[in-house]
User: Fold these one by one.
Assistant:
Number 1:
Amino acid sequence: MVIFRQLFDQQSSTYTYLLADRASREAVLIDPVFEQVRRDAALIDELGLALRWTIDTHVHADHVTGAWMLKQRTGSGIAFSAASGAEGADRYLQDGERCAFGARYLSVRATPGHTNGCITLVLDDESAAFTGDCLLIRGTGRTDFQQGDARALYRAVHGRIFTLPENCLLYPAHDYRGLAVTSVGEERRYNPRLGGDLSEDDFAGYMTNLGLPHPKQIDVAVPANLKCGAAERVPDAYAEPAWAPLAYTFAGIWEIDPQWLEDHLSAVQVIDVREPAEYDGPLGHIPAARLIALGELAARSGEIARERPVVTVCRAGGRSAQATVILRKAGFDTVANLAGGMLRWRAEGRIVENGHF
């Protein structure tokens, strides 16, 4: 079995898919989103994977790909369809090619119609396929821009996707209703645009009269995606914090290295969010740490200086992780959690006050 994760970007309703070979830990990431690169990289790191390729199923019009950013962070290669027109990829995929990750691979099937460069990626055992915007759950991608062609899309779905096994699971690049997965058999029967007995003429007529609004991000997304998401510089919102060597977790929490913290205690504010009895208890507390119990933190955040970084700490790291969320909502930008809390701090033999076992 492969390692498989389905990830979601709420802003663009985009699904990103992570697949990895369990033995080699090599992975591929399908349709990454620029704003979610930090999240995706954290998951890849936590699972102990080596990202070999990012693959975009087409040149998206509603979000910017995270391919370039992930290449900068992880060294992964960028793969695009050879018919996409994108510049700067490390590999241009042709119909029938295989994109390997360890002992597993994805087969490339050209499925144009939404755009010229649309591809569907089929897992080696044909148990799953990733259809991009070609085939959605009970729908299809639109065909009214980017070289769209309704008849080509109809033929692509029927000839390249509906020919897969009936129980093959289909994973689209988008869904706007909260649906996550479908199957070849379901779409053959129930897709209201091209399933059942609907003909190519029926589909072409349907698509001609959709009357959809212009995608909001198309003027930004398409030019950026034609360069594989490359940016002249990383926007400040996605740059790594510079005040300390922080790690970003898949849970969305910035964590600080204990050694760095011990060496730089005078440069930060340590906020201990345990209860008073714990603060004065056997684990002790970090020198100069200020006690503000988690339940009081939101109301007392105004007591914390904003010009100096904040490190939150508790017994094991759970409450202090929540404390970073509270402080960020209160407008603190430079805040991090001490992962493992006082238990880890003491286990590593670091300096404490009032501690005893």
Number 2:
Amino acid sequence: MKKETIFLALFLVVLGLSNTNAQINLGEKALGAVQKGVAGLTFTNEQAAQLSKEAVVKMDAEHVIAGATNPYAIRLKKIFGKHANTNGLNLNYKVYVLKEVNAFATADGSVRVYSGLMDVMDDNELLVVIGHEIGHVVNKDSRDAIKAAYQKEALIDGVASQSGKIAAITDSQLGKIGSAMIDSKHSRKQESEADIFAYDFMKKNGYNVNAVESAFSILAKMSEGAQMDFLTKMMSSHPDSKERAENAKARAQKEGLYKPYIRKMPVAAKPKTTTKKKTTTKK
């Protein structure tokens, strides 16, 4: 309510200045910025999807994407292609060739998986993480995250537009919104609900639900070992990974589905190593 009052007040001020030819004239650019801020308060699902799509297009152009014949892309299509239509969402998916352990999904249905994540998880574990990210989209967490990012940029624009520099979302601001989508700080409640969605996704589609515990256990071990600064940053706002693994195990036990999970890492997903060939000299 407080934010709405502020935006409305700004809107009325601009209208008043325009109508009275006041000496301090913010102009059409400032008016557009304030209108953007007001519009952000009633951000629709369609608006969230459109802005997400634009941000993802920019991010795709700035990353190395695994081509159709790349082993990572082939693997992702094999295990996830059948789920391109989930809970009424039309999902498009790609692999970012990066060593970071990460994945994200956006309000427009874009799913991006980092090759680093595929290197450390088997197919079922990977589906758990992707299912978790889709859960954020289904639960509208992704929509709320991009709405918050958009409102922040609208406020920045409102200040900057007084000097006539910014009139709309710029390419730079679009990049910031994209980064905000990747680094979204969801609440513990939202994260827990996304975990539940991931478990339900695995169960509904006939996958081994014990992979949920395994996936979170992997993240817990990596976080403890501080193997990746990026991973530590990514998990900082999430519930404790050990706790999440234990919750998944407890639910599987309650449902009579628990058994120790046996990981099956595909050969194509293993990090490449090189060995020096031995040479022999014929006598």
Number 3:
Amino acid sequence: MQHFRRSLLEHAPALRRYARALTADAARADDLLQDCLERALKRAHQYQTGTNLKAWLFTIMHHLFVDGLRSAKSGPVLVELDAATLDLPAVQPTDGGLDDLGTALLRLPAEHKEVVLLVCLEGWGYQDAARILDIPVGTVMSRLHRARETLRQQIFGTDEDGGAL
């Protein structure tokens, strides 16, 4: 069990990075990471020795994140508006820098964002991402293509062939 715990901690930085990218909030990401590690410890008996522990942990985190989204949708969303918020000018397009990529990534639907984060940020292959997300490989490829196209349009205002929209 001690070896299992050490192995969990070895994967914590990658899990934290994925949680931060999913939630876009440090506190929520830390909570998600803690919940993931706690669930992994409680269900250590379900882990099959010799299989990919990192993929198992990412799968747990994915399920926790999706469950959290479902819970959030079932309750009311309260938003406080003040006078200053109502007078803000519209956001102007910028030069397509890294800030734009982060903003565009946050705007993606959750199912597209998860695929981009797993494949592009974490370096998982399509097969592994499909197992983590519990979807077919073709769906991973399709979502990744649509996500990349959406990002391209949001950042550069161009279509797939580079033409202006």
Number 4:
Amino acid sequence: MEEFDTLINADQAEILASLDGFQVEILESFLMQTKNDYLESADKWLNATTANTAQFGGETGKAKIYREKLLDEIEKFFCGDESYEDDRKKISESTEKTKQYLIGVLSSAIGATMGVAGTFIAPVIALLIMSMGKMGVNAWCAMRVEIKANQQT
């Protein structure tokens, strides 16, 4: 979907602007501490609020497992898995295509699948989207396939 490429190609300020102010302040602090390492900042967010990650072993050090689960769900959403077909259809039929809307739909859908509040994972989803860089959805999906293939060998 063109909307996803637009989201992935957005700069950090645009993506952060789609979040609530208090979330932005925390993320900016994490990004400063990690020298803009998006994945490490995502782990910091997840470790800061472990009650939400308990089902994935939410204590410190387990955030990477949770982050990988989120990446798997983002992959399903972006790369065409049928479990998110209704959500992608909702986006394509909507007249609203703002980054805030897209991250909101992603967060709600993935949060429902994972059993957590979309508002909790929205900042992590924003960070993971920023980590995708400027490669576009198709290239990112191909990269995820390659990473998984290499992990199995």
